[in-house]
Amino acid sequence: MVRGFSIWTCTCAAQVVLLVQASASVFCATLVKRQEWRDMTNNQKIQYIDAVKCLQSLPAKGLVEAARTRFDDFQAAHINLTDEIHLVGQFLPWHRRFLSVFEKTLRSECGFIGGLPYWDWSRDVDVYNSINKSPVFDSVYGFGGNGIYIPGYAGPFNNLSNLPGWVPGTGGGCVPMGPFTSYNLSLGPGTIPTNHCLTRAFDDEYAWALSSTQVANTTKQPSFEIFRIELEGQPVTPTMKLHDGGHFAVGAEMLNTYSSPGDPVFYLHHANLDRVWWTWQQLDLPTRLFDVSGRSTVDPPFVNITLAFELKMLNLAPLVPIRDIMDPRAEPLCYTYV
Ligand SMILES: *[C@@H]1O[C@H](CO)[C@@H](O)[C@H](O)[C@H]1NC(C)=O
Ligand SMILES: *[C@@H]1O[C@H](CO)[C@@H](O)[C@H](O)[C@H]1NC(C)=O
Ligand SMILES: *[C@@H]1O[C@H](CO)[C@@H](O)[C@H](O)[C@H]1NC(C)=O
Ligand SMILES: *[C@@H]1O[C@H](CO)[C@@H](O)[C@H](O)[C@H]1NC(C)=O
Ligand SMILES: *[C@@H]1O[C@H](CO)[C@@H](O)[C@H](O)[C@H]1NC(C)=O
Ligand SMILES: [Cu+2]
Fold this sequence. Notes:
A two-stranded parallel sheet has the order 1-4. Strands 2-3 form a two-stranded antiparallel ribbon. The protein is mainly α. 36% of the residues lie in helices and 3% in strands. The protein has one domain (12-337): di-copper center containing domain from catechol oxidase (Orthogonal Bundle). Strand 2 and strand 3 form a beta hairpin.
């Protein structure tokens, strides 16, 4: 994927000037197709899982000492930046860039030839009001299922019952089946590094938040800021929304704001959120293609997010201004949802 990034590392003045003046789309040679998990062939599913396992077998590049693998590097960056990238205006742009770097890394370092898959949970929840039966959690052609049931499980710090409206999940322990049973995480829970298995605690109590009715309510929001708040959810909204609904429905590893990218399904959940954002942008592209706003930090003093705000990826990738990741069809992103 050197070609994909080449324009950004180019020192040629003319190209840089052109880029600044246009402040818009630099067209891609090709777009990778991001597909819904169940629409992929079994062969494509295995290729994706193998690529993630490849990242889990490559050595870390050392952002934090406790990170063992390239897969951990991504989790480490997310943990480090968590307080700057949630509940703020850059929430969606940051995660769009993060997923794109993950996708490009799978391609450049693990020979993956496809696009990042997404998980359209509405396709499960609209039918079953549950995520349990989702093909995403298949133990052969998916990410494995629920964690082993631990009665009274209330999170790694045993304090989730403090959350308003908390209903215990149906798992909590190690995921016993699927492709990720033998991979122990080195980071998390939260900001603490521990050697632990991948855990899940499915909780269908929150599945309603992922229905197509909820998606429609989100995409009808008139401004970027209200759209982002309605998508991201608690504690700014009084009830669960698409973003936190997905994290809570899967539970355990996925429930921790810092360390949730330890569950490989994180990337499919966030790809779907990114797809919902792109859907919202496309409903009024002339207005919304470059529409961002919102506070830059959770606590004052904060500035308002603009297109010039730079997204940090630490040691994963160079800084880019939000302007450059507003259009998935343009460099440096180059993907399309199908
Ligand atoms: C992020 O990394 C910086 C630099 O290593 C460190 O000072 C900071 O404590 C880290 N923050 C978190 C939340 O891990
Ligand atoms: C649970 O404890 C952890 C670690 O002390 C803390 O970070 C987290 O905010 C707590 N969660 C709740 C819901 O109280
Ligand atoms: C993986 O973590 C679990 C605890 O979650 C532990 O029981 C197991 O021994 C660890 N496996 C390895 C190979 O470190
Ligand atoms: C739909 O969106 C509005 C904001 O426009 C929000 O107040 C309301 O709670 C949402 N409805 C549901 C069911 O989430
Ligand atoms: C951010 O934008 C809001 C709404 O337009 C405005 O009220 C506020 O003063 C701005 N804050 C800063 C720090 O520019
Ligand atoms: Cu996040």
